[in-house]
Amino acid sequence: MAHPAPPAPRPELPPVHGAVICVSAPCLVISPEHGQLTGHGMDGIYHSGRRLLSRCVLRVAGRDPVAVQGRSTGADRAAFTATVRTGAEAGPDPDIGVERVRHADGTERIVLRSFNARPLRLPVEVLLGTDLADLAAVAAGRAGPELPAGVHAAGLRWSTGDAQAVTTADPAPDDALASAGLLRWQLELQPGESRTIELRTTRSRTSRAPAGQVANPLADARAECDDPRAEAWFRTSVADLGALLLRDREEPADAFAAAGAPWRIGLAPAEALWAARMALPLGTGLAAATLRTLARTQTGGRGPDAGKIPGPLRGAGPQLPPGCTGTEATLAFPAVLAEARRWGLPEPEAEPLLPAAERCLDWLRSALGGDGFLADPDPGPRRCETQAHAHRAALLGADLLDAYGRPGGPEWREWAAALRARFRQRFWIDGPDGGRPAAALHPDGRPLPRLTGAAAHLLDAGLLGGGRLAPGLLDPVRAEQLARLLGAPAMDCGWGLRSMAVREPGHNPFGHRSGAVRPHESAVAVAGLAQSGFEKEAAALLRGLLDAAEGFGYRLPEMYAAEQRTAGSAPLPHPAACRPAAVAAAAGIHALAAAAGIRPDAPAGTVAVSPLPGAPLGALRLSGLRVAGEPFALRVSRLGLGMVEEAADALQLGG
């Protein structure tokens, strides 16, 4: 009897944790640390998911330059330094310096500098090639062979039936050999002289990909701190988030944050909303554009999905089936709109989004299960974080309805109160150590007794008017117990919050939902703990995130290994993580804003400042933020006292 063939294994994403990545969405460049694009693996210049150039190998005087350093110098650019020893002088010292500056838009500037005491005649070659493969094919190991090149006026070109790429050089090469993919120059260098070659790779013979694809709605804010690492973290977070902005194809004036590079330069609804929410201190423009973009995708009609924002399934680790990101996005929509109003979203932009928020709430009401909880997906587990998102949507949605004189606010508050009572009865698992929240309820009502980082969402209640926070799902006693659990070594690995406690069955320090640190979840925990008065635990997680940020050059990946921190250790990268990633970049903004404790109510003309006691990072100043559409700056002293330095004239300190 023949046995069925085993299912084909899923292709493994190639590791990119050691790569130097430049991004200005939809432009992307992935380079090895030595800077030579070899044509192997993920190396290449990409535009809109198409690899325009896979090989760009520089040779000077017949030699490969010796790599000295490769580093990111900005979200959209990187620099690679190398040296060459031509042999013109005796001794081991190199006599040619090579600096390559590569931009996400496909531009590369090569600077050759002579350290020789005599004039040099220097042959320089650049070997080029491409397969014009889709990024997905490259990631799956299915990229084709290099295509034959043709000579272009000042370089080379390649084409297939549906794509083409052109690399031009300035100055034009002395020789261009299409059969070898070779550009060649003979350069004369006097002692101390530099010569520059610029390469430009584009999708056509005439156009150059613009470096900035959208108007950046994010304020150019700054952080100043006794701990200078906080300044670098904040600056890099803002730059990375801006580099991931993409146009909505339907309405090009609207931008949203792509999920991350290199794998997910596209719209991921839940993550786009999380990034927009966490970036509200930089202005409401990104939130408004993201909400408009997602409102256009909202399911219409009268079916069971009416009002839902579509989203793909997302893996949840070994203990639970995949969750629906559409559920998370639908619940986030009214909450983000409500909080954007508090930060100053103008009424002419907010009010047109109200019908979409109401449809999200209508879907929530219709999707609630017979047990009074929201399954994700249905039928399936009732996840603890899903109930937290639903609770926040109800309370902040009620806030929205009241603000616009729409009916339903009191009913949604009653709905939320009933959910709180059910949650405290069914989701809390009592124990001699004080108990814990269940990670989920199975469809038959059995609790899943896992402690996960998703529990941090139970402390993220949301912002109401007058600087008040919405009530949380947990009562004060259980919130204190959860704070102790999140702050204990089983969850706080020293580099951030584990996505699952270290002693739980199935724990994997590299597991994206079963142990690894996810920076945005850690930032949610920092903010929730700080707002709930658990400053010790909040401060420890904040310092751990900052230390991890330093270990990653202040560009936090979407996840990294949750190995326990020890003396002299460093955070370990996850080989398949996006870096930069929108929610990881926004996490730096959210965590530092939480430390400052900014709680605006622009419609009421007030702003409250409630910094994290003890000033765990020392004195902190945030400037260039936006509240009520105007510049906002505040300072937190070393004693943890907050003072507003700049604000809109109509804003009063209060709350």
What would you note in describing this structure?
The chain has an 8-stranded antiparallel beta sheet. Helix 3 (about 270-280) runs parallel beside helix 13. A hairpin with a 2-residue loop joins strand 30 and strand 31 (about 630-635). It folds into 2 domains: about 20-205, Glycoside hydrolase, family 65, N-terminal domain (Beta-galactosidase, Chain A, domain 5), CATH 2.70.98; about 220-655, Glycosyltransferase (Alpha/alpha barrel), CATH 1.50.10.10. The model is unreliable at about 205-210 (pLDDT under 50). It is α+β, with helices and mostly antiparallel strands. One of its GO terms (biological process) is carbohydrate metabolic process.
Q: Helix/strand/pairing class, anyone? A: alpha+beta
Q: Which CATH class of the largest domain?
A: Mainly Alpha
**What's the end-to-end separation, in Å?**
75 Å
Q: What's the architecture of the largest domain in CATH terms?
A: Alpha/alpha barrel
Average pLDDT = 94
Order of strands, main sheet, comes to 7-8-9-10-17-14-13-12
State the helical fraction: 25-40%
Overall geometry comes to: elongated
CATH topology of the largest domain: Glycosyltransferase
Query: What Rg is obtained from the alpha carbons, in whole angstroms?
Result: 27 Å
Number of domains: 2
Instruction: Give the number of helices.
Output: 13
Given as residue ranges, the uncertain stretches (5+ residues, pLDDT < 50) are: 206-212
**Approximate strand percentage:** 15-25%
What kind of sheet is the major sheet? Answer: 8 strands, antiparallel
For the secondary structure, the number of strands is: 33
Protein name: Glycogen debranching protein
Region (Disordered): 296-323
Domain Putative glycogen debranching enzyme N-terminal: 25-200
Organism: Streptomyces globosus
